[in-house]
Amino acid sequence: MQEISEQTLTGERALFQVKDVKITSSIFEDGESPLKHSESVEVSGSSFRYKYPLWHSNNVKVRNSVFFELGKSGIWYTNDVEFKGVQIDAPKEFRRCKNVVLEDVIFTDAAETLWTCDGVLLKNVQAKGDYFAMNSSNMKCENVTVYDSVIIGEYLGWNSKSLRFVNCTIESNQGFCYIDGLKLESCTLLNTDLAFEYCSNIDADTHGKIRSIKNPISGKIKADEIGELLLDETKIDPSKNQIICSKIGKTTREITDKNILQ
């Protein structure tokens, strides 16, 4: 494998079509598309300071590196991508990518990021920005915090672990199901139904009306209003939940443990 270390790389397409290369402690300065059409690339301890660094690439690993603000639209049409310990200050990253692993990654400006990607694993990721992960599919995540966002979409957060939403407005059909460790802080849920099914360790402080809640496994849910509460004792133990709500439209059965409602 070719090795490039402690270099400042400038000019358009500085390493165009490079293959089997390990880049360490280097700077990608001015010049568009430095690694376009690259393959089997490992980058560590480096910085990207201009746009379009990784387009149409395959098998890319980036460690302990930084994408600066001008490194926007950085990773498009790229497959088999693994980022660990990376800070990304640029918007519009990751478009139409497949098989993306992001671990210990911070997006300081995640606007229009992770669009139309397929197969995404997020672990310990922080992202702040509008329209995050729009039209992406097959996403799994762990230890993710989302701030100050508007999120509209079905099946939000399914099969995830340790999710936290802060000051978000959320509209989701069957949102927040099959999650272990869910925290909602000062969030508004609009037109959200069949929420929290088989979700455990819930700590939800919400505003507005939740259309319906179905079979949460355990935790605390606070809401202004719940349209319908569905609890099936053959599938969950209602006593492991605390529902704090002054107005519930209807319940599908008699709740035997009166302490569930306060």
Walk me through this protein's architecture.
The chain has strands at residues 2-5, 8-9, 19-24, 27-28, 39-44, 47-48, 54-55, 58-63, 66-67, 75-76, 79-88, 98-107, 118-127, 137-147, 150-152, 161-166, 169-171, 180-189, 200-207, 209-214, 219-222, 225-230, 241-244, 248-251. The protein has a 19-stranded parallel beta sheet that branches. It has a 3-stranded parallel beta sheet with strand order 20-22-24, with no helix packed on it. It has a two-stranded parallel sheet with strand order 7-10. It is elongated, with a radius of gyration of 22 Å. The N and C termini lie far apart (64 Å). Helices cover 0% and strands 49% of the residues. The chain has one domain (61-70, 79-91, 100-260). It is built from no helices and 24 strands. The chain has 262 residues and is mainly β.
How many individual domains?
A: 1
* Terminus-to-terminus distance: 64 Å
Order of helices and strands: EEEEEEEEEEEEEEEEEEEEEEEE
Query: What oligomeric state is this?
Result: single chain
- Give the helix tally: 0
Radius of gyration: 22 Å
Q: Indicate the proportion of strand residues.
A: over 45%
Structural class: mainly beta
Would you count the extended β strands for me? 24
Shape: elongated
For the biggest sheet, the summary is: 19 strands, parallel
Mean pLDDT: 91
Helix fraction bin: under 10%
Which characteristics define this entry?
262 residues; elongated; mainly beta
